[in-house]
Sequence to fold (585 residues):
Amino acid sequence: MAFPHSVPTGISPAVRRFGPSLLRLAAGVTVLWFLVRQLGAAPFGHGLRAVTWQAALAAVTLTALTTVCSAWRWRVVARALGIDIGLPGAAGAYYRSLFLNSVLPGGVLGDVHRAVTHGRRAGDVARGVRAVGWERLCGQVIQALVTAVVLLTLPSPVRPALPYILAGVAGVAGCAALVAHGAARRGRSRLARAARAVATDLRRNLLAPAVWPQVMLASVLVVAGHTATFVIAARVAGCTAPLGELVALLMVVQVAAVIPLSIGGWGLREGAAAWAFAAAGLGAANGVTVSTLYAVLMLVAVAPGAGLLLGDAVRRRRAPGHSGESRGPDPVPLTRETVRGLPPVRGLPAVPSDRSRPVSGAVQAAAIRQRVRIPLRLADDYSTTATVISFTGLTDGQQHVALELGRPAAARLPLVRLHSECLTGDVFGSQRCDCGPQLRESVERITKHGGYVLYLRQEGRGIGLYDKLDAYALQDRGLDTYEANLALGHRADERDYTSAAQMLHALAANRIALLSNNPDKGAQLARLGITIVRQVPTALHLTGTNAAYLATKARRGGHDLRSLSLDRAAEPRRRAGPVHLGSAD
Fold:
């Protein structure tokens, strides 16, 4: 029986916590000590003195390009896993991580910083860590594949042994895959859960046709940029080896450099360069000189990351609690606007101007509270799986939820439905409204496209269940749905979509396609920082009992119901069944 949280006898918690870092530090120190003992300090000094401003400028330029490509790869992977980050923000975070990796032991602490910071910003640290972990792993796997192709093509010291090395790697990978597959099918152990999570990420997300080609292209460009920087360092250091041979040697050095056993990148990289250059007859000292020059050039090239970290520290000092990275959209000036009202109803008082709703152009930050996968089976046996997301920090204090359907991260533009709760229509199938059919339609369409249903606790257009039933009674006496709300002392429509905007910001869905016939939803969201790229109408779910209700929404509420004969259909019992007028996405 396994006890995953137990501490082995004789091993202190401090050793368990700091042991891996000490091991990486010791490995880097050992390699450098061995090189200094064998070759002396002169090769390191030659590398430092060989720096030129032309080489530094070239390294800065190439690193800027590779950093943008790396940020692009990270953004693609993160979106595939269900969280988003803008490319400028991703590039800035990547510069920070590169600088930290270059100056801190182990060479991975910058990636940890990037993962945790982005995870906190997105409201899901675990998913943020997974995104960075997969992004780094994908980059290293593709780098290894590119290196194998180059070494099989170009002459190098490892070329004769490469087929045996590749066969061994393939064997180990195959065994690992078999073990993971077996673990995924056995029980509910931690290993089994991890294996299933890895398989799910690969099958549903990373190997999707819209994901892996972008990851592949970005990774190849990153490898090409780093190799070009290494070649510049070699030429500036005086290495005159043929370009093909030099590229092969430098690819070997790059593979060794990604192994996290170093001091800020120093250690295995210099050891691999000394071995590769010596095996090629170019001299171990020359390999160390080239590697040292490359390290200095890269430190200069990632200096923007130091500037960004310094700026973060200054902002935190001036404004306590600031994370240093954007937690949401850029704030815009606070405004108060009156939501578009309805024309006055004859015989009923107009809505007082002091009861108009304030709409703020800047919303408070909300965060994702929990994600839970739930299989759904609707009344007509349509089935899908939704990730139900809850939130903290919503301004109205209501327990609204988002249903993540399909793969919104892979969609060019997530499709979003703001659906106000309707117990009578959603649950009991009331024919007096079209809420139930609209929800059913939205679930299927968004599952196919990828996006979210925001289920908002705003019964009866915000007046509550009991008052909605009272409004039904008034409608039975001849008032329409808006007149009934006004007669009860409410506004015609009391819904406020500030919390919906908060939810979308927390989901990093700041640009959406809105699935709605109601222009007020898009207008409010736009004022709250959400970009409505297009508004997609729903079908018209028309029956004999809801025709008058739909006609009133079209005539008085401005809803786009796409029916020229809707007013005629409002005649009692004109139609006995639903009419679905589909609208193309």
In short: The radius of gyration is 30 Å.
